[in-house]
Structure formats: structure tokens, C-alpha cells
Amino acid sequence: MPWSPPKNTRPRTAEPRFPLLARLGRADRWAFDRVAAARLPGLEYVLPRLSRFADHGVLWFTTAGVLGLTGRHRLRRAALRGSIAIAVASPVVNLLGKQAFRRKRPVVDLVPPIRIRWKLPTSHAFPSGHSASAAAFATGVALEAPGRVAAPVVGAAAAVAFARVYTGAHYPGDVLAGLGIGALAACGTRLVWPARPPVARVSVTMDADGLVKPDGEGLVAVVNSVSGGSGGATAAILPGRPDLAAELIERELPAAEIVRLAPDADADKALAAAAERARVLAVVGGDGTVNAGARAALEHDVPLLVVPGGTFDHFARALGLESPADAVAAYRRGRLGRVDVSYVTPADGRRDDADEQVFLNTASFGAYTELVDRRERLEKRIGKWPALAIAAVRTLRRSEPVDLVLDGRRRRVWLGFVGNCGYGARGATPTWRDRLDDGRLDVRMIATGRRVPRVRAVAGVLAGHLPLIPGYRSWRATGLEVVAPAGGLRLARDGEVSSLPRAVRFGKHAGALRVFVPADQG
């Protein structure tokens, strides 16, 4: 029998199926051991409690509540976006990610017992749900809030993520994956709800040399005490927003003159008289009051200081003035910018400034006026978006297109909207602009020759995406002529509804109004 060499019976070491993943796993465990062995004086007590407070999103929803209670529009948007991002990220991590990877929790032999003060979680480790929620909320806030607010939230999110490793709950890789998923979820909210710029840009043209005095001398502030739902039965018990703003002006600018409008006063007459003797005209109230103040400021060529005191304060927020304190700071800074003023006037061939009706935000006609009427009646009781939903359903169920002639073309118009400068949102109630001095009108309408599909119309309005509705048209222009062959035209202008002649013309006064702007403008 021929001799043959003995076979090698030593068992072979199995090669890993995914060498890269194996190396990453070894690096992940090494990093966990280093963190577990670290001693950070003072944080041994803080980080475990912070991690515990973040259970079930308690830390983030508490922060959202605090941001909402500030009353600042940007902070409320930040709180809402962060909360929505958590609602997206949490099921992705807990229902999909953890079930797909089923990674075991770390062995905590090296973690000091002082850090493990509560029972360790028994669910799968990858990815980290706490880190995903932290990153989702912090990124959502950072997309909307100013840096001084976003920075502490981001810092808290980073601390929670580190605490998940420091307390032995997760490997660093779990945390990094959770952070990535949370950040992507927050950024993904922009696909359905675009982030708005913090303020509409205005070219700063000059400093208010000689107009601004430290004590407010030469400033006349006209206060509409019934703006923003103030007044009525609660006026004798609690001061409204305009009254609180007036008290701030009296305290900060003692030499300023305060004019309080009586409920039955002629606001246009009072504002014109105030502008005639003022070096700076301030208006405290909502968008309707600001509109009247702008007319007076234009007529007497004085700069306008906008002090928010209404329900929505669209123009003040577009300037970056979210509170009366912001307005006082803008006055003291003394920076003036020029913004566009749009107008609508009878198209009878005569040019008479007295017939011009100006608007700083929007003018709308057709079913828009009915929708605005119904929404405004409901929104103070149930909030803006529920009011919009109910108003949309009721209006779109009953309204019919009207015959109009637009720049010489006959159309059946169902909804018509004209904005002072280009608006970013494409919904039924756009609220933000990138600039206030672009010299253009933003025209949008639903013009259709047949009956509008009600279900798609309601979906388009509620989804904030009018292009879903057949017949949607939008364009930018410097002017627009509208003729209603059947009679007068009903127009909602900066929240005030009025009736106009059968033929009107929309136009622009580019850069006509001088306004005080915050220090970060320009």
C-alpha cells in the first residue's frame, strides 16, 4: 500500500462573512470599553439622570412645551417641527431598526455601578432610540429657531447621546446610527413642511440719524387696544397684548407720545394726525392697524415702526419683529430699510392716490374672501389650522367660480390671490416671504371652465399645495387688471374685507415705505 502524508486535522478558523462589519464591531466594542473605563467627575450623577429624563421623549416634549409657551412664532414652529420629527424617527428605530438587526446590549462589567442606577433596557440595542429622538428634536429646532435657542437644545441632545454609552445602555455605533436616523427624519419634514427663512430680507438703505432719541422724543405711538382679540369682557381684568406693548414703550421710551384709539375712533384720521406731528410713527396692533399706519406714513413721509400686537402679525414677523421688545430694540438701533407697498385702485383711467387701497401682505378675491371670513370667525376659538380645515370644507362645498376678465382674458376664477412680493409657500394661506423689496406681485389663482372637483380642492387647500387643484395658475408680475362684468368685486386686503368697483388695477410702489428693521437685517 503506497504511503501518503498524514492529513492536517487542525480545524480551520472560519472567515467572517463580512470582514468590514467584523472590524467595525471590534472597533465599536473597543470604544465602548474605553468610555466605560473613563471617569468623569461630576458627570457620574448628572448623565444617568439626564438619560432617565429622556425616557419616552419626556425631556423633549417638556422642552417643546416651554418653547410653545414663549408665544414666539419661530419657537412654536421649532417645537412643532421637533415633535413631528420624533414621531417619524421613533417608529423607524423601534419598530423597524431594532427588529431588523436584533443586536444584543453591551456587557456592563466595566461600567461602575454608580452609573447604572436603574434597570437596564432589555430591548435590542441597534439603533439607539434615545439618540434618534434627541437628534430628531434638536435638528428640528435648529431648522427653525435662532442659534441662541438651538445651541442649548443641541448640547442637551449630544449629552443624552453620550450618556447612553456612558451608562452602558448602548455601543457607540448604536448611538451614531440613532443620531443619523433622527437627523434625517427632521430634515425629511421639510419635504412636506418647508422651513421658512427667519426673516424676509430688506436692503438697509440708511441710518435714522436725527430721528432716534434715547428717550423716544419725536416718536408717536398709536395703539389699537382691540387688536388681537383684546378688549371686550376681559379688558377690565387682563390687559391685552397692545396695552402691554404700550406699557413697554412708556417704560423704555418715556418721552414718546402714546395715542390710544377708542373702540369707535376713526383710525385713519387718528393715524394721519399722529404722522403729521411725528418724526417716527409707531403702530401697535395687528395687520389691519399696520396697514392704516403705512398709509399715514406714506402720506406724510415719515418712517414706520411696527410693534406687533395682533393675532398673526404677518408683516411684523416678516420684518423679524416678534415682540414689542424687538420693536423697541430696532428703534434704538436706528436702521431703516425700504419695503414695497402694493395697491389696488379703480381702473377708470384716472390716477388718484386717494382712491388707492394699499396692502402690505395679501389681497384675495373669489372664494378666498369667503374662506377668510369663515376661518377668522373660527380661529380664535379652535386655532388656525382646525379653523382652516372647517372653513375650507364649508366654503368649497358651497362656492362657485365667478366670471372675471384678467388682463384682457376672460376666465372663470374660483380662488384669487395677490401677494405683496413673492411668497414661498404654495398653500391657500401663504405666510412667509424671502424678500420685502423684490418689486413683484405674486399672483395665484384657480381658473377653471368647469366645476371644481371638491375632494381634490379640499385636499389641495388642507395639504397647503394648491397645484393639486385643476386650473391652478401662478405667476409674478408688476401689475394686474381685474374686471368683474357682473358687478363689484369683493376683496380681502390684509385681513380687511371691502367692496370695490367692477374694474380694478393692482400695482406696486417699489421701496416706497421706510421701516425700522432689526440689527441682523441687511
TrEMBL record:
InterPro entries: ATP-NAD_kinase_N, Diacylglycerol_kinase_cat_dom, NAD/diacylglycerol_kinase_sf, PAP2/HPO, PAP2/HPO_sf. CDD domains: PAP2_like. Its main location: membrane. Residues 214-348 form the DAGKc domain. Coiled coil: none annotated. Keywords: Cell membrane, Hydrolase, Membrane, Transmembrane, Transmembrane helix. One of its GO terms (cellular component) is plasma membrane. The keyword Signal does not apply. Pfam families: DAGK_cat, PAP2. SMART domains: acidPPc (SM00014), DAGKc (SM00046). It is a multi-pass membrane protein. GO terms for molecular function: hydrolase activity; kinase activity. It comes from the Bacteria. It is found in: Cell membrane. The keyword Cytoplasm does not apply. This is Phosphatase PAP2 family protein.
